[in-house]
Amino acid sequence: MAQKAKSRKVGTPGRIGHAVNRAPARPKTRERLRTLREDERSLPGAALLTLLIEEGARRGLSTKELVASIKLTVSHFGMLRTGQRSVPRLGDDVLSRMAQFLGLSLVAVMLLAGRLQREDFVAPTSTHARELQSAMRQLQNDPAFAGYVTPKIMALGPEEQFLIVKLYEAARGLKLLSSYTSVSDVVDGVAP
Fold first, then answer.
1. DSSP assignment letter at 30
2. Cβ proximity of 34 and 66 under 8 Å
3. Range 38-119: architecture per CATH
């Protein structure tokens, strides 16, 4: 014998024999990409996230579509936005997908992510060399000595510049080279 199916009728919600009153289904709207909040913009890697969001918005993508295109989950992307996950610590594979999405080089994306710094592209300068360069610039900017500091003098080697700065210190009663303890510091600390 076939069982009779119980139908829900309009009335008290949830009771057998009564239909549940529901609001009519709303058409699904695309979730717009939300820009970073003020507090999120100060986090490491915010420049990269901002660029991703802007490019996704330019293409008319939703958040879900954006993160799918770089093979992340919405929750992972949300944690990157809020700082719960670190953008600079993202793997090379994720950064490569982001670079491809943005049409940028991996190095550019690493800079935006905070993984690399601009200083990573400049040869390190010793404290001695920086201090000597600064002292030479001060001597060059002193009106009483500026006429004597020609481009040739500025191009001299570190030993000669050290001697000039020491003479300038004595003439002006200044101490500009505090990191030097002896003349050997010039050769050891400044020489390439």
1. P
2. no
3. Orthogonal Bundle (1.10)
Phi, psi of 151 (to 5 degrees): -60, -30
Q: Which two tokens stand for residue 166?
A: 């020491």
Read off the tokens for 182: 């002896």
The residue ranges of every structural domain in the chain are: 38-119, 127-190
Q: What are the b/e assignments for 108-129, b being 16+ CB within 10 Å?
A: ebbbbbbbbeeeeeeeeeeebb
Could you give the CA distance from residue 167 to residue 163 in angstroms, rounded to a whole number? 6
pLDDT digits (tens, 9 = 90+) for 76-116: 999 998 889 989 889 999 999 999 999 999 999 999 998 88
90-93 contacts: CB < 8 A, separation 24 or more?
A: 90/45, 90/115
Measured CA to CA, the distance from residue 188 to residue 114 in angstroms comes to 33
